[in-house]
Amino acid sequence: MSESGVSIEVQGLRKSWGAVEVLKAVDFGIEAGGFLTLLGPSGCGKSTLLRLICGLDEVSGGQILIDGKDVTGKAAAERNLGMVFQNYALFPHMTIEENISYGLKIRKVPAAEKKKQLDRVAELMALGSLLDRRPGQLSGGQQQRVALARVLVSGRPLVLMDEPLSNLDAKLRVEIRSEIRSLNKKLGITIVYVTHDQSEALSMSDRVVLMSAGEVAQVGTPKELYEHPANTFSATFIGTPPTNILDSSEVEFPADLGVAGGHKVTDCQFGIRPENLGFPAEDHEFRVKARVQSVEYEGKVFLIHLVTAAGTTMVLSYSGASVPQEGEEITVGWGREQTHLFLKKDGNAIAIER
Ligand SMILES: Nc1ncnc2c1ncn2[C@@H]1O[C@H](COP(=O)(O)OP(=O)(O)O)[C@@H](O)[C@H]1O
Ligand SMILES: [Mg+2]
């Protein structure tokens, strides 16, 4: 089992299929042992990117560096990495033990060492009691744990995972998420993980690369993406429910509000997270009037769906005692530190100057 990962960096990576440009100069990197997630909606180019890193497809431009070495022209087998796909493939006629240790056998790892590595990963992935069974006798979640165990004992310092949990039910997903995360930290292997699920990305990653239509929309830690969305795409993709976006004409804001770069507030949209909206509005500097369309009970909070006079829909996350009722006209408020501003012309975040 690998005890240390390798760094990975992609620079100006491009991919076209015929005339269609699927990836447009993508840049990102992660240090050895890090957990990097490629996040974005279906079709944005995540799997394409992973296949280029893996060496399954040829790049149309740019470079891939693994452990500081350019591997762009190298064959998949020379890149020393492991990969787990959404549809895991175990050998049906082999036991779980044989499946997991297949790579060790191929590499002719001595028996004692093989046993040690097998025991360790079986314990980490809670597979110890299943080693004598065959894949057909395991649940989907157990099979996926075997597929993960197999790649983790493969000795590869870099492992790529393409939506490995999307076939599992919600409870298992959350369990295996934290197993993968703790294995990444315990074994020190570098992981590049693909998902379209923002909560998965936020909960597992050291760094997230948010993608939109073949381009990087934002790169940062989960906290950076949540607290400082770089654009309206990021603000509305990250967080559940997503950030409310309001036109400046709908918002009551302080007269002295100033925007960086000489822009006017009227050039901007406001972004405000549902959990940062205050109700009732008290001495809040920023306010919006809206009508309650519907009320959803979520257990911990109520999600109050609102519509402004201009027809913009927004959501208030509310945990107080006096729940507003459908049809009611209410005012919600928030403070300067919870305000995100985005330029209308390109959707990019712009700083508040005062
Ligand atoms: N072999 C291919 N030939 C042509 N187009 C492709 C091929 N593979 C992927 N694409 C296109 O590239 C885009 C990105 O696909 P993909 O990387 O699979 O997205 P994601 O994994 O983010 O859902 C899609 O529009 C898809 O149709
Ligand atoms: Mg995909």
From TrEMBL:
<dbReference type="GO" id="GO:0005524">
    <property type="term" value="F:ATP binding"/>
</dbReference>
<dbReference type="GO" id="GO:0055052">
    <property type="term" value="C:ATP-binding cassette (ABC) transporter complex, substrate-binding subunit-containing"/>
</dbReference>
<feature type="domain" description="ABC transporter">
    <location>
        <begin position="8"/>
        <end position="238"/>
    </location>
</feature>
<dbReference type="InterPro" id="IPR003593">
    <property type="entry name" value="AAA+_ATPase"/>
</dbReference>
<keyword id="KW-0813">Transport</keyword>
<dbReference type="InterPro" id="IPR013611">
    <property type="entry name" value="Transp-assoc_OB_typ2"/>
</dbReference>
<keyword id="KW-1003">Cell membrane</keyword>
<keyword id="KW-1278">Translocase</keyword>
<dbReference type="InterPro" id="IPR008995">
    <property type="entry name" value="Mo/tungstate-bd_C_term_dom"/>
</dbReference>
<dbReference type="InterPro" id="IPR017871">
    <property type="entry name" value="ABC_transporter-like_CS"/>
</dbReference>
<protein>
    <submittedName>
        <fullName>Carbohydrate ABC transporter ATP-binding protein, CUT1 family</fullName>
    </submittedName>
</protein>
<dbReference type="Pfam" id="PF00005">
    <property type="entry name" value="ABC_tran"/>
</dbReference>
<dbReference type="InterPro" id="IPR003439">
    <property type="entry name" value="ABC_transporter-like_ATP-bd"/>
</dbReference>
<comment type="similarity">
    <text>Belongs to the ABC transporter superfamily.</text>
</comment>
<keyword id="KW-0547">Nucleotide-binding</keyword>
<dbReference type="Pfam" id="PF08402">
    <property type="entry name" value="TOBE_2"/>
</dbReference>
<dbReference type="InterPro" id="IPR012340">
    <property type="entry name" value="NA-bd_OB-fold"/>
</dbReference>
<dbReference type="GO" id="GO:0016887">
    <property type="term" value="F:ATP hydrolysis activity"/>
</dbReference>
<keyword id="KW-0472">Membrane</keyword>
<dbReference type="GO" id="GO:0140359">
    <property type="term" value="F:ABC-type transporter activity"/>
</dbReference>
<dbReference type="InterPro" id="IPR027417">
    <property type="entry name" value="P-loop_NTPase"/>
</dbReference>
<dbReference type="InterPro" id="IPR047641">
    <property type="entry name" value="ABC_transpr_MalK/UgpC-like"/>
</dbReference>
<keyword id="KW-0067">ATP-binding</keyword>
